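Recap from last week: sequence in, structure out.
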Amino acid sequence: MRLVQLSRHSIAFPSPEGALREPNGLLALGGDLGPARLLMAYQRGIFPWFSPGDPILWWSPDPRAVLWPEQFHLSRSMKRFHRQSPYRVTLNYAFSQVIEGCAQDRHEGTWITTSISQAYHRLHELGHAHSIEVWQGETLVGGMYGVAMGELFCGESMFSRGENASKTALYVFCEAFSRAGGKLIDCQVLNSHTASLGAIEIPRRDYLEYLNTLRMQPIEDKFWVPRPLFSPEA
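Predicted structure tokens:
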């Protein structure tokens, strides 16, 4: 196994099975962040992740972290909080603000560079990338964004500036996505936060099988149209 240098003249990727097991499924470097290449990457279970100043790095972890929407872990404390939630949640109201929040709210530094932000803005304009926003009054206090692949949603990043704000974003999205026919959320690499919310690890080969099936199954029409998802008054 070796790290593959991508060509700028072809959007083809090597097989994810050739990814280095350590660190976290590093597969290739180079290429670009154009919409066609990004969509090809997601269709093959690959995503970009690199630090400022580094070349573009492409990953396909084994194992893969996933969350079945109906298995979101709603703790007792979170259930009590949500019953009296001060938040409202919207879909695709403020993509730019969400990706900016995800970039800024990182104590360890951000991988959401200007080039990454521009690339996902383009995917959003094309109808492939989406945001979930959590508001307290008129202030954005949390949210998440990712890329839709039919009945699978590839989560990219989330942020929180208020109590349980990112948990609220994911919980409300899981319920809405599941009702619309969504089957699986890709969490990429497991961490303590996503694990506490119900994410688990599965073998990469299993994830790729789910991906190949679910990305071909569209969810209900107009699901991604900008709209409210939750209001505490409802």
